[in-house]
Structure formats: structure tokens, C-alpha cells
Specification:
The chain is an alpha/beta fold and 171 residues long. The protein has helices at 10-17, 37-45, 59-68, 85-91, 111-124, 141-147; strands at 27-31, 51-55, 75-78, 97-102, 125-135, 150-156, 163-169. The protein has a seven-stranded mixed beta sheet, sandwiched between helices.
Length: 171
């Protein structure tokens, strides 16, 4: 459930967010925020009328994030599986997400769960939407290429451990 005991480095945070045009992104989803390293960066950059849905299953992290972001009406902290992203988009009357950012440790999951999450993400993105995922290995590359139409990879050496950022576009 937890991918790393060390928060993501500033270099990884920068690489994960560098392809997002926040002026054109009205719905952003985050999978697996953990302690909220990316959530805080997203909060600083999103428009006040944008919606940020944050999916965290680990109850202590969820509680901490829920408390931290409780005063922001446009940030919804959700204690549920990323597989249910479509249901929550519908609940908030959103057609789809412009961007999905994921810190989920896909390599730690069973293949069926990983496939379900990635397909839910692809089905939840608007046309030409992006799914941005970081991992500590290239193990998920083939699966990401099966689900998304475009997959590019950037290496981030300045992180413990070093990481790969996948930029994937909706099929």
C-alpha cells in the first residue's frame, strides 16, 4: 500500500507537474497521495474554480489530508479505491479529468488490480487527457503502453530511490 518511506524529492515533484497546463485543467485527480507531497503542490497551482479529487486508501494518510485540506471546497479527499474514479467524477458532475497524477506503487499490486486502475484512469480522462505516474522501476511500462496511446518516460536521478516518470495520454 505504501511505495516509499521517504517523501518524493523536489526534482521528482517538478518532473511530475511540468507537463500540466494549470490554466486549462479544470479537473485534476490524484491517486495515492500518501503524505500529500504532490497534493500541496497541486493546491498551490490549481485555479480556485478547479476541482481536485484525491484518492487515498490508507486511513491515517486520508485522515491527515482530510484535516489539512478541510477548508478548501475545491479539494475533495476520498477514502476509496482509485478504481472508482468514474463514480466520483459523476458524483461531482464532471465529465472527466484533464489530468490524473498517480503515486500508486503499481509494482506492488496484483496485475488485475493494476489493470483495473489503469483502465479506470484511461476511461476517466477527457480526450487528450494525461495520466502521469511515477515508479521506481520500468516494470509497468508494457502495461501502461497497452492502456494508453502515448507513453513517454523521464528518469529522475535526484530522488531516493531514483524514479521514472511516465507521461501517458488517453487512448
Amino acid at each position: 500500500m505504501i511505495g516509499s518511506i521517504i517523501p518524493s524529492s523536489p526534482a521528482l515533484r517538478k518532473k511530475m507537474l511540468e507537463n500540466i497546463d494549470f490554466s486549462k485543467s479544470s479537473v485534476i485527480v490524484e491517486f495515492g497521495p500518501g503524505t500529500g507531497v504532490f497534493t500541496r503542490q497541486l493546491h498551490k497551482k490549481i485555479n480556485k474554480d478547479s476541482l481536485l479529487l484525491v484518492f487515498e486508501l490508507h486511513k491515517p494518510f486520508y485522515e491527515r489530508l482530510k484535516q489539512e485540506f478541510s477548508e478548501y471546497d475545491n479539494i475533495k479527499i476520498i477514502n476509496d479505491s482509485a478504481e472508482k474514479v468514474r463514480e466520483y467524477l459523476a458524483h461531482y458532475e464532471k465529465e472527466g479529468a484533464d489530468i490524473i497524477i498517480s503515486s500508486l506503487p503499481l509494482a506492488n499490486f496484483k496485475k488485475d488490480l493494476t489493470t483495473n486502475i489503469l483502465e479506470a484512469a484511461n476511461n476517466s480522462l477527457k480526450e487528450k487527457g494525461y495520466y502521469i505516474q511515477f515508479q521506481y522501476s520500468l516494470k509497468s511500462k508494457k502495461l501502461l503502453q497497452q492502456v494508453f496511446s502515448l507513453v513517454s518516460i523521464k528518469y529522475v536521478a535526484i530522488n531516493i530511490p531514483p524514479a521514472f516518470v511516465y507521461l501517458c495520454q488517453k487512448k
